[in-house]
Request: fold
Amino acid sequence: MGHEPTFQIVNSTDHSALKVLTHRSASLGDSVMKVHAFPAEFRMLQTAFPILLESVGSDDYRAVGLLGFEAGENLYLDDAGWGANYVPAMLKREPFLIHYAGPHDGDEERLLALDVAHPRVGTEAGEPLFDEYGNRSEFLKQVVGLLEQLDEGLKHERHFVDTLLQFDLIESVSFDITLENGDRNQLLGFSTINEDALQRLSGEQLALMSERGFLAPVFMMVASLPNLQNLIDRKNQRLRQSSGLEVFD
Reply:
């Protein structure tokens, strides 16, 4: 994103005048090729984005929504703003995160932190963090709710991945994409659901996945793969625009 994050615990004394820009643009850090995702949002993600798995270590994975084909490319973002009906939660939560402050009554204390150096943060324009009385604004309350959902969702993702590994449902995949102008893009290092292995699951295994809340997210991942063509179409359209060719919808 081009800046060094500086996180501070949000409080009404130090941050009473701060505001956060909520529109989408490259200058605000939205030009990303992929975004970390979690199973509870797969239903919305699969309406627009391919959902894949990427390796984050030996026999460990995380889910991502694919937004482009190369680093810094977001094909759902242009000069007009955001071009999909859903903003992935990990993008939407910027520039906030949960800070874990060590044991507190037997659990980690969770505090709301803000990257005050983020380009979304300023004092001139955007959504205020606090009202004139020092109370949390409606915007900040919504942020807290979103971060709580993310916190639970990412814990849920850990169990989701463990279950996929348990039932051998992950297979490596590569995409070799040829664009209209002859350019080729290769997507390597991703994995998806092994549909053959999914079909071989026993009724007991399927029931266990359903009981854990993981069966629907698996099918959402499978259903999302045709969105790769959506990405290709967006890339081709962008190439036509950059070459000065007329584009008709």
About this structure: The CA atoms of residues 32 and 125 lie 24 Å apart. The chain has seven helices and 13 strands. The first strand starts at residue 7 and ends at 9. Residues 7-231 form one domain.
